[in-house]
Amino acid sequence: MPISLLPSLLLSILAVGYTPGPANIYSLSCALTHGRRKALTAWMGLLCGFSIAVLIAAAVAHFAGTALGGYVLWLKYIGAAYILYLAWKTFRASIRATQEVPCTFLNGMTVQLTNAKMILFDLTAFSSFVLPYSDRFMDLLPVAALLLIAGPGGNLVWLLAGAVLRPMVEKHQRAVD
User: Fold this and answer.
1) Which of 29, 47, 150, 153 has its Cα between 20 and 30 A from that of 54?
2) Are 46 and 159 in contact (CB under 8 A)?
């Protein structure tokens, strides 16, 4: 990846990683309902799940880039369009009461491994910032490391926000409900 693309990648990380998504909402919910300590256990699962998912996405992107060659350019547009579709569906969805999900390492890992928003963002980042310039798997790994800022970094910010808001939510539980 040319260094001139780093600001674009970091802006994408900020835009996608820190906006609402399944793992960010899970982090916030864990911190609000169970406290910081229990939420950090779930966050470790989110970190582990994201690390596994980003490495799998890097391998898929590498093999897809090798197999598809010139068509890789279109993958970033398909991924970006799907992320916009998910954002639209989230915006239009009504808020429904759901059963509380326990804050465990395994649940955190599962949430992240099934997080379509982040998996598609990972694939889009690889196809936009690495594959047009290199076909080496090792060139995907620095971007994969930067993507940890997007996934687990964003989850941690939402978790800390929930920990800060928890006393207010507990104090005004009736109004919040």
Assistant:
1) 29
2) no
Could you tell me the pLDDT band of residue 50, with boundaries at 50, 70 and 90? very high
Q: How many CB atoms lie within 10 A of CB 171?
A: 10
Query: Which range, of 26-35, 106-115, 141-150, 168-177, averages the lowest pLDDT?
Result: 168-177
Measuring CA to CA, which residue among 43, 53, 74, 30 is closest to residue 147? 53
For residue 71, give the amino acid letter.
Y
pLDDT at position 7 is 92
**CB neighbour burial string for 28-37, b if at least 16 within 10 angstroms, e if fewer:** bbbbbbbeee
Question: What burial class does residue 2 get, using C-beta atoms within 10 Å of its C-beta: 0-12 exposed, 13-18 middle, 19+ buried?
Answer: exposed
Looking at the whole model, is its pTM more than 0.90? no
Residue 116 carries which side chain, given as an amino acid letter? Answer: A
Rounded Cα–Cα distance for residues 78 and 87 (Å): 14
Rounded Cα distance, 42 and 143, in Å: 24
Task: Find out whether 45 and 151 touch, Cβ atoms under 8 Å.
Answer: no
Q: How far apart are the C-alpha atoms of 132 and 103, rounded to whole Å?
A: 40
pLDDT confidence of residue 150: 83
Per-residue pLDDT band for 106 (boundaries 50, 70, 90) equals: very high
Q: Give the single-character DSSP code of 19.
A: S
| Sole residue written with tokens 């864990």 | 30
User: Tokens 């759901």 belong to which residue?
Assistant: 98
